[in-house]
Amino acid sequence: MDRRGLFSVGLDAVEHAAVMPMQRNEHEFVDQEWAARLSLDLLTRYLANLHAEMTGAPVEPQWQRFFELASDCSQSPEHAAMAGYNAHITVDLAYSVSVAGTRDHHAFDFFRIVDQIALHGNSIIDSTRSAYGADLGPLWSGFFIGDAVDSVVGEGVGTTAMLRIADVGYNSLTLAHGFALQHQPTEVEARHRIHGLWGTIDQVLGGLNYVGSL
Name one Pfam family in it (predicted). Predict the structure, then answer.
């Protein structure tokens, strides 16, 4: 079985369960056209990297990491799958927020989308378990906030860091990065922050896999 589908199966499930029903309802968003631009750009980024992977073309670093893990059978399928979501949410979503021309008044629609995806998180868990036997449940249920992270970075350190991220709101952070990318004075710093955050999450995932918590 080709494990490069570990991200695709969850993406397909949540698109059908949450995203597409919203897109088809013309009364769902304040700005329907903006919501469509955001979703299309986000999906296109993954598909472009998938096509590049299949044809031997250059793949962006965040997706190259996913494909490497998915192709390495010594890595857990949970680790590989979560690397895909790290690429999708931490990096691609921030850039899609920028490309979609997001403004302050789009925040309501943005959080409406991510809230619906969160509410349908079980579709990701179920589809990934069914196709690959990988259990993402503990991670989607807040597994990061607790002993597993502390076992990697030190007692109390991981828990505090993840609680701070949860308090600020990971999607709020992504939205802020997307705003910053649209302005020349903050664009370069935003790029550094996005890829720095992606790298931090990637290291945590790797650490959890190393200690057997993934």
Answer: DUF5995
